[in-house]
Amino acid sequence: MHYAAATGDGAWVYLCDLGTDTIARHQVRPDGLAPAPARELRARPGAGPRHLVLTADGTLAAVAEELSNTVAVYALDEPAGERARASTLPRDWRGANTASAIRLHPNGELLYAANRGHDSIAVYRLRHAAPWLDPVGFIEVGGRAPRDIALTPDGAFLLAASQDDHFIRAWRIDPATGLAHAQGEPYPLASPACLCPLP
After folding, report:
1. Hey, how many other C-beta atoms are within 10 angstroms of the C-beta on 72?
2. In the β-sheet with 146-151, what is the strand arrangement from edge to edge?
3. What are 118-140's pLDDT values in tens digits?
4. Which SUPFAM superfamilies match (predicted)?
């Protein structure tokens, strides 16, 4: 297991299992999670689902697939399953890379996925109908191996944790484009791996 995300009502938890290429939905009980999943979504073989975000209405999940370097959109209502896929990398990139984290902007439209290797954040617009994902561009984070990214609750800033260069950096989001500009100086921190802004 690489990540767990609860639905807005707290009734369900979705688990990313990178090892089995599945996204499983478990019911939340008073004593913990139900041991057997109520539903399993199958990612493509070898994709490696690592991290996911749920839309506010609970109808879609956007998943960062670590090994295939893709963002996949899955419908959660019947008929459930994959609706779209897009690379997290530019077409001309040939180096090693693994996708790490994905975050959905509070506006429910802008989607951000981090790359370790290309050391960037891919930006998309998430739709609720085909084509589902519109690539916008890339943010160069200026540090190696962005292990995690996060958005401030007001949606004004994007934070990136560069694990191998040992710092966190803030980026001011341009609401018109979804892209961002570095804000201030990097904050030194040893091997940051997870970011969780507090309200």
Report:
1. 25
2. 146-151, 157-162, 167-173, 180-188
3. 999 999 999 999 999 999 999 99
4. C-terminal (heme d1) domain of cytochrome cd1-nitrite reductase (SSF51004)
